[in-house]
Amino acid sequence: MRYKELVSTFLDEEAYSSDVIIVHGLLFREQKFHNIQTFCMQQDLSTMDPATGKTILFAPRIFFSTAGVAGAGLDNADIRSVHRDGYLPTLLDLIQEGGRPARYPGALPSDNRYHGNISWQSFCSLFFWIYVVPFIEEEQKEAERK
């Protein structure tokens, strides 16, 4: 997935100590479970590189996932920021996702974020389904009555 490379490159350039974990629909169930568990473990995952003898730090702090994975079953109290791409299906989903960050003790609103990213394409698609499709259906019903 291209997002992982972009974020990883940014983190490396800015010298942040974070790694990225991705869960999406193309992974096998076992891979999804492993990635979610790895992200939620909250412990040092350092390993020794056998070739160089140096310690490799693995600190998964960024989690990319589809909405279904992140909304159901991801239980990590130390989430600081959630970024949503596109519209949510319901208002209840918005409340659920908006409450995901800041569940840790001593959380401050200034330290936690919820961002919704809406593209022009997704806005036009939503507009079409709300306003245009009902109009077309009404026109078809009117034509059938005549």
Query: What is the highest CATH level, the class?
Result: Alpha Beta
| Structural domains: how many | 1
Order of helices and strands: HEHEEEHEHEH
Over all CA atoms, what is the radius of gyration?
21 Å
- Portion in helices: 40-55%
Cross-sheet strand order for the largest sheet: 1-4
- What's the rounded overall pLDDT mean? 76
User: In CATH terms, what is the architecture?
Assistant: 3-Layer(aba) Sandwich
Which key features would you list for this structure?
Rossmann fold, alpha/beta, elongated, two-stranded parallel sheet
Secondary-structure blueprint of this entry?
Layout: H1 2-13, E1 19-23, H2 29-40, E2 47-48, E3 55-56, E4 60-65, H3 67-71, E5 81-85, H4 91-98, E6 113-117, H5 120-145
Description:
By secondary structure, this protein is of the alpha/beta class. It has a single domain (2-119), classed as Rossmann fold, CATH 3.40.50. 43% of the residues lie in helices and 17% in strands. It is built from 5 helices and 6 strands. It has helices at residues 2-13, 29-40, 67-71, 91-98, 120-145; strands spanning 19-23, 47-48, 55-56, 60-65, 81-85, 113-117. It has a two-stranded parallel sheet with strand order 1-4. A two-stranded antiparallel sheet has the order 2-3. Strand 5 (81-85), helix 4 and strand 6 form a beta-alpha-beta unit.
